[in-house]
């Protein structure tokens, strides 16, 4: 395959896209990558930056009729607001503890030296999280499944006239979309609650999304998920390091 053929295979589908859509996708990708980098450093700006990306993707995915992906980003928008509040409260609590515990403050200075300016305390998954994760996964798969089941009606201007329904219309893309949607939603909930293990879910879901988005013809978004996967692997290590430093501060 020549370079021209390769570039045409990767980006040829954009020839039929409006310039506005291409520009919006690029902006969303840039803000999305920035938000993941901020999350790896437990920087609270992850949420306002991420909101820009998810809001744009909600609009684009609705236009492209990728309803499962659109639902993910709509949920991201809601969870970003929740996470912003949760992280802000934790930051205030950490600062208060530093004020009354100079030893802990000294250990938290070590965290600042690792380029993590906001001193958000990270936590590990516990048994109380498991039932909520299971419920979230089941509800997500059921909801996205219903969306795809009624997709012919949605594509028919929400009319049942002439619309054929049935599970036999589902494709492997639909089933994969249901799986990644569940993984992403669980990951975002754990992230909002500052759980280290959310990075494991991101790694798995991001890796699956790379070929999925290439297949859907969204090359820039697929490349974004390549970057997301690499960042998530690195961030998982970073959060583990932060957790160990926090443990030293807690027992100081």
Provide the descriptors you would attach to this structure in a database record.
252 residues, 0% strand, 2 domains, 77% helix, 10 helices, mainly alpha
Q: How is this structure best summarized?
A:
This protein is mainly alpha-helical and 252 residues long. It folds into two domains: 1-100, no CATH class; 124-251, no CATH class. Helix content is 77%, strand content 0%.
Structure description:
The chain has helices at residues 3-11, 19-40, 46-63, 67-100, 102-113, 129-149, 151-155, 172-192, 198-216, 219-250. The longest helix has 34 residues, at 67-100. It is globular, with a radius of gyration of 20 Å. It is built from 10 helices and no strands. The model has no long low-confidence stretch (mean pLDDT 81). By secondary structure, it is mainly α. It is a multi-pass membrane protein. Keywords: Cell membrane, Membrane, Transmembrane, Transmembrane helix, Transport. It is found in: Cell membrane. The chain crosses the membrane at residues 20-38, 45-64, 70-87, 130-150, 170-192, 199-216, 222-239.
């Amino acid at each position: 395959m020549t370079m021209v053929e390769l570039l045409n295979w990767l980006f040829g589908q954009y020839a039929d896209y409006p310039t506005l859509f291409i520009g919006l996708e690029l902006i969303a990708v840039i803000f999305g990558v920035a938000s993941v980098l901020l999350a790896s450093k437990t920087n609270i700006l992850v949420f306002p930056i991420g909101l820009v990306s998810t809001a744009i993707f909600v609009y684009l995915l609705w236009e492209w009729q990728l309803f499962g992906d659109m639902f993910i980003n709509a949920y991201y928008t809601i969870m970003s607001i929740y996470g912003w509040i949760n992280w802000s409260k934790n930051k205030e609590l950490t600062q208060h503890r530093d004020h009354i515990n100079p030893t802990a403050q000294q250990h938290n200075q070590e965290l600042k030296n690792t380029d993590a300016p906001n001193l958000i305390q990270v936590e590990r998954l516990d048994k109380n999280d498991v039932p909520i994760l299971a419920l979230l996964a089941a509800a997500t798969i059921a909801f996205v499944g219903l969306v795809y089941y009624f997709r012919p009606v949605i594509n028919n201007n929400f009319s049942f006239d002439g619309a054929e329904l049935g599970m036999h219309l589902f494709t492997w893309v639909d089933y994969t979309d249901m799986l990644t949607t569940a993984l992403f939603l669980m990951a975002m909930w754990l992230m909002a609650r500052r759980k280290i293990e959310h990075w494991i879910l991101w790694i798995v879901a991001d890796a699956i999304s790379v070929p999925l988005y290439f297949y859907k013809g969204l090359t820039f978004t697929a490349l974004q998920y390549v970057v997301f996967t690499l960042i998530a692997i690195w961030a998982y290590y970073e959060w583990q390091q932060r957790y160990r430093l926090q443990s030293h501060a807690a027992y100081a």
